[in-house]
Amino acid sequence: MFRYDEKVLKDQLLELIRLAATDLPVDVVDAIKAARQNEPEGSAARNVFGMLLKNIDLARDESTPICQDTGTNIYLVYIPEGVSMRKLTALIKEATVEAVDKSYLRPNAVDSLTGKNSGNNIGEGQPFIHFEEWDEDHIEFKLMLKGGGCENVSTQYKLPDVGLGAGRDLDGVYKVIVDAVNAAQGLGCAPGILGIGIGGDRTSSHLAAKTQLFRKITDTNGNPELAELEARLKGDLNELGVGPMGFGGNTTVLAVKMGALHRLPASFFVSISYMCWAYRRHSMTLKAGGEVSYD
Ligand code: SF4
Question: What is the rounded distance in angstroms from the CA atom of residue 95 to the CA atom of residue 64?
Fold first, then answer.
């Protein structure tokens, strides 16, 4: 039986939220630094990247949010057999309320019918928590904070798309992704990171797209065909010249990450989850006995 101290785990989850909100992961910071180096001295793009890096350092040093929109809190939680999802959900919510009190998170949960903000970031479907059971003997909490601006330019296509000349194949997938990034110009706080879900139904396709965003920027897709397409799209999208925050430049996307699901014969969805430069994600591993590590 997997045991943990509830009060201790709540505090450990609070630290996970603090890290996610205030400390951009190393792979993301390295990608932004490399993008800055890839812009000419004195250019608007180089200056924007410089400002982003200063902002990132300041947020980490002062434990303040990297962006004022602390986004939707998206959790993927992997649990061994027998762990209560209900109890973990309650602890995540408790930690969330405390994170708002400490100003790590902005109260971001608005009742869609009344327009009233709940004031503590808790509401129907907020935070979003997806559980999966696995064979490992530890729990892994993955947390991503996804801002509203980039979520608004996330989208879903249904292939074939006659207007774009996009058929039901990887060439069609390529075409709709280029279309989505073109449409997002000036919005969504570029450079973006694209999580792509190919196939599935409308719901599972979006979840697959968001799950891709938990990969490291530097990793390589295990599927050679998708690995090739990720690299090609990254190169081609960076030729669009949108640049950081739409100021023009050599980096429009930092990465493209793709996953594929089986689909119905009648459907072929491509979901595009657009993440902004404030690519806030961290994870926490909890071993039986209470030892934790953060990544
Ligand atoms: S899209 Fe990202 S960087 Fe832009 S305001 Fe929202 S959270 Fe902040």
Answer: 17
